[in-house]
Each structure stands twice: as structure tokens, then as C-alpha cells.
């Protein structure tokens, strides 16, 4: 019995020692979207700081397509050793609601590691357009249909959530990305659109777009003049553009902890928090259990929105 016990102690010691040295080689941080977007910006910021902390390179790899599905599938097929992880946005949870066929199960084939950051969705219009503020916009959609662009699952369902909460008339218009949507709003081809703060910000600073609505209860300091939907009597329109880290299924608790601990350490510095605030975001590192609970809530919320709106998977 003593020999068996000693054997277990030795095994646990070896495993613990192995994970104490993690990472021992470069880590790939997959961003399953095109370069230059919000997820890519955050991944490169965080990856740079983790590289310094860990003493190995955290290599950001962009593999876009199918609203994040192609790059995510690459991670789902990888070894669960933590050397290939991914940074995704809220549409990772929404994709199964809107897509009939996917090469993986978003719940079973990935290990949620931690939420990293979040920022509210914002409603944007042309700077020289006719909507002076959010109240004027809500009044307009109650009179007749207004076109509202979306570029991915969460922006689509956020628009549907606004339609349901306001009782207004909205004509959804699909785009392949946030950038072309912003350009068409500027050009007057579509009247409005939901997007992330990071996507809207350069155009707002250039004087081409205006943010008139913020989809959370607190608002955002970066657009202090924009009202929240709660302020105009629509608190249901609450949509957080979140960023989260996932790995393939069956990752060990030890590796999850090593990654989470690394993020917590680099987040204590001022660089990441200040850069996120410049982009209208904030840190939201809450640990593995909190992330699991958050994901479950998000799934139920958006499933209900799609069901009520009779939006079927295609």
C-alpha cells in the first residue's frame, strides 16, 4: 500500500513539475477573424504582454471565414495542451443559433478558459444624417421601416432585440464585415447599424459617423453624449460585445490555470487596461467558473430573441 501511495505521489509530482514549466514552446493565439478588427487588436496587445511574461512567443494567427467557424475548427482539432488557443467574440455562442451546419459543437468541443474583455454594442448613424439622438431614432422606427445593417450574429440579434423591445419597424441588411457596413452608413446606402465600439471609433473620430445609442445600462465614457437604451425606456436592449479565450476540449485544469494566471498578471499592469479604455472596452477577467455561467446565460438570452423573432438557422 505504501508503494502504491508513493507511486501516486511521484506521478502527481511529475505532472505538477511539468505544468510548472508551462509554456515550454511558442503558443498560437488563433483569431478566427480578419486582421485589424477588435479581436485582432486585443489579441496582439495581450499576446505581446504574455510573450514577455512567459518568455516564449505568443503568435497571433488570423484564419477568417464563416463568421469565425473556420479558425475555430482549427483549434477544435488541435491537441488540448494549451499551445493553440483562440480569442473569439460573442458570435461564437450565437453561431449555432443561426447556422444549421457547423463542423463542431460550440459547447462540447471547446474548453472555456476565461472572459477577457467586453464593451457594449453601439448604434451608429451617419454624422450628417437626420437622427439627432436616440429618441429621434426610436420615434422614426415607430413611424415606418428604417434600414439597420449587421455584420455577424450578435449584431443581427441585437437589431432584432431592438425591434422586439421598441415595437418599431426595422429592415435588417446583412454585411460581410463591420468595415463595409460602416462605409455604407457613411455613404447613405443604409441608415443605421449595430457594431462594436472598436469598429465605430475611427469613423466617429474622423467625423463621419455618430454613435447615438449604447446597448447597456451604464453607458460609456468614450461616447458621453450617446444615450443608453435604458435611458429611453428600453432596458431590454442590452448587448455586450465580449471577448473570450477558449481552447480545444479536454484541456487540463493545470493548463487552464496557467493561462488564466498569466492573464491576471499581465492585466495588473496599466498598459492593457489603458489601451482597452482607449478603445471603449474594459477588462472582464472573471475565471473559468464565472465564464461558464456567463456563456450559459448568453446562449439562453439569444436563443429566446431568435425564437420570438422567428429567426431560423440557415
From TrEMBL:
This is Tripartite tricarboxylate transporter substrate binding protein. Pfam families: TctC. It comes from the Bacteria. Belongs to the UPF0065 (bug) family. It comes from Vandammella animalimorsus.
Amino acid at each position: 500500500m505504501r508503494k502504491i501511495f508513493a507511486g501516486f505521489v511521484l506521478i502527481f509530482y511529475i505532472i505538477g513539475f511539468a505544468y510548472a514549466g508551462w509554456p515550454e514552446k511558442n503558443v498560437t493565439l488563433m483569431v478566427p477573424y480578419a486582421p485589424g478588427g477588435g479581436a485582432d487588436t486585443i489579441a496582439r496587445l495581450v499576446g505581446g504582454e504574455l510573450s514577455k511574461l512567459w518568455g516564449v512567443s505568443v503568435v497571433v494567427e488570423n484564419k477568417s471565414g464563416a463568421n469565425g467557424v473556420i479558425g475555430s475548427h482549427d483549434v477544435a482539432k488541435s491537441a488540448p495542451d494549451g499551445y493553440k488557443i483562440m480569442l473569439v467574440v460573442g458570435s461564437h455562442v450565437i453561431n449555432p443559433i443561426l447556422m444549421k451546419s457547423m463542423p463542431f459543437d460550440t459547447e462540447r468541443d471547446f474548453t472555456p478558459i476565461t472572459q477577457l474583455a467586453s464593451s457594449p454594442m453601439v448604434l451608429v448613424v451617419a454624422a450628417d444624417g437626420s437622427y439627432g439622438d436616440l429618441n429621434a431614432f426610436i420615434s422614426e422606427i415607430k413611424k415606418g421601416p428604417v434600414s439597420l445593417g449587421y455584420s455577424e450574429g450578435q449584431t443581427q440579434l441585437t437589431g432584432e432585440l431592438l425591434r422586439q423591445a421598441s415595437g418599431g419597424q426595422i429592415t435588417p441588411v446583412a454585411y460581410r464585415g463591420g468595415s463595409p457596413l460602416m462605409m455604407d452608413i457613411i455613404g447613405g446606402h443604409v441608415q443605421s447599424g449595430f457594431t462594436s465600439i472598436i469598429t465605430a471609433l475611427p469613423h466617429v473620430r474622423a467625423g463621419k459617423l455618430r454613435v447615438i445609442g449604447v446597448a447597456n445600462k451604464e453607458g460609456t465614457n468614450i461616447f458621453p453624449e450617446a444615450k443608453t437604451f435604458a435611458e429611453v425606456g428600453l432596458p431590454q436592449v442590452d448587448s455586450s460585445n465580449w471577448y473570450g479565450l477558449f481552447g480545444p476540449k479536454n484541456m487540463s485544469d493545470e493548463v487552464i490555470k496557467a493561462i488564466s494566471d498569466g492573464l491576471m498578471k499581465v492585466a495588473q499592469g496599466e498598459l492593457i487596461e489603458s489601451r482597452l479604455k482607449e478603445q471603449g472596452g474594459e477588462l472582464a477577467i472573471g475565471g473559468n467558473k464565472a465564464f461558464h455561467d456567463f456563456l450559459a446565460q448568453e446562449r439562453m438570452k439569444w436563443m429566446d430573441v431568435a425564437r420570438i423573432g422567428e429567426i431560423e438557422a440557415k
